[in-house]
Amino acid sequence: FMKTNAPLSDEEIINEIDRCIVMPGQALAYKTGQREIQSLRAQAQKALGANFNIREFHYMVLKNGAIPLPQLRQIIERWISAKQETFRQEALKKQRESKPSAEKKQKLSP
After folding, report:
1. How confident is the model over 2-35, as pLDDT tens digits?
2. Is 96 left (phi over 0), alpha (psi -120 to 50) or beta?
3. pTM of the model
4. Are 54 and 43 in contact, with CB atoms under 8 Å apart?
């Protein structure tokens, strides 16, 4: 199966098969982590939209090293919330700056 479906040399295929025989749970753990990180990335992209930054996301995933996936989910969800709040605050600030205050309007009128 691997020979026809994976771009690996015979030696690499043998090594993969040996690894799965010796450590059958390792491949499952790898795939579980991969799927969780992909899910978190999709969640962050949806929540942050155009403000999503893949480098920041990678930094947040990697900065704590090897941690349990539920803990990683909490960290990423807090990061998403913090980023959303920052963007909300920036938008409010821009709104306030773009609207002339009543005091400014009085000064401008004759």
Report:
1. 888 889 999 999 998 898 899 889 888 989 999 9
2. alpha
3. 0.73
4. no
